[in-house]
Design brief:
Shape: globular
Radius of gyration: 20 Å
Helix content: 40-55%
Order of helices and strands: HHHEHEEHHE
Number of strands: 4
Structural class: alpha+beta
Strand content: 15-25%
Bound molecules: heme C
Largest sheet: 4 strands, antiparallel
Distance between the termini: 43 Å
Length: about 180
């Protein structure tokens, strides 16, 4: 009897020891705020880039996207994009993102923003990106021939075509310091 009580009290102590239960609502709000500048600046660069036609916009995107991600990464916070079907290999998912990406990819019912404890100092945030009609120009099933050529030159391993509007495309992610 005493032993059972002892085991029960030990079990009860376990969650307190790990101590890493996240306040999900708080971290989701922080993550959404962290990725917002990148979302806005990318959209702005895309829209103004497209004014000169999609082929020119690819060059803008290639130069601007990494720069905008770096600029939006401030004060120990890092942000970026990732996808299971990459155009630019440097957008590859880090290990903590992979399982979230897999869920988004396979389960349309579970495409809410997500948070995860990466380690004791860092929280990871991810939110899904969906294709809009505008995106199909450069990520759709049939691309203009000159666009196809340019993409082939710049991204010889491009996997990010064949999408339709509404499709799940990838994630915006943030790494947030815990303190
Ligand atoms: C003008 C052509 C163009 C349009 C339009 C466009 N993209 Fe892209 N997209 C690119 C290029 C080029 C890259 C690679 C950027 C880089 O080098 O970092 C890219 C990369 C991405 C990535 C990062 C993952 C990867 O595969 O490297 C995501 C996610 C993405 N695009 C989603 C979208 C969405 C959503 C839209 C519509 C809002 C969109 N794109 C519209 C050209 C385009």
């Amino acid at each position: 009897m005493l032993r059972t009580a002892l085991i029960l009290s030990l079990l009860a102590a376990v969650p307190a020891c790990t101590g890493s239960k996240l306040n999900e609502a708080k971290w989701k709000a922080a993550g959404a705020e962290a990725v917002l500048p990148l979302k806005k600046s990318l959209k702005g660069a895309l829209v103004s880039g497209l004014e000169n036609g999609p082929v020119a916009a690819i060059s803008t995107c290639r130069v601007e996207a990494p720069k905008l991600a770096a600029e939006a990464s401030l004060g120990g916070v890092k942000v970026g994009r990732a996808s299971g079907r990459l155009r630019n290999p440097s957008n590859a998912a880090k290990p903590w993102m992979q399982s979230i990406l897999d869920v988004y990819e396979t389960d349309p019912e579970r495409r809410e923003p997500a948070v995860v404890a990466i380690d004791k100092n860092t929280v990871g945030y991810a939110e899904p990106i969906f294709m809009q009609p505008l995106c199909v120009t450069c990520h759709g099933a049939t691309l203009a021939p000159d666009l196809q050529t340019k993409l082939g030159e710049l991204y010889p391993t491009d996997q990010a075509t064949g999408y339709a509007a509404g499709d799940f495309r990838g994630i915006f992610w943030a790494e947030l310091p815990r303190n």
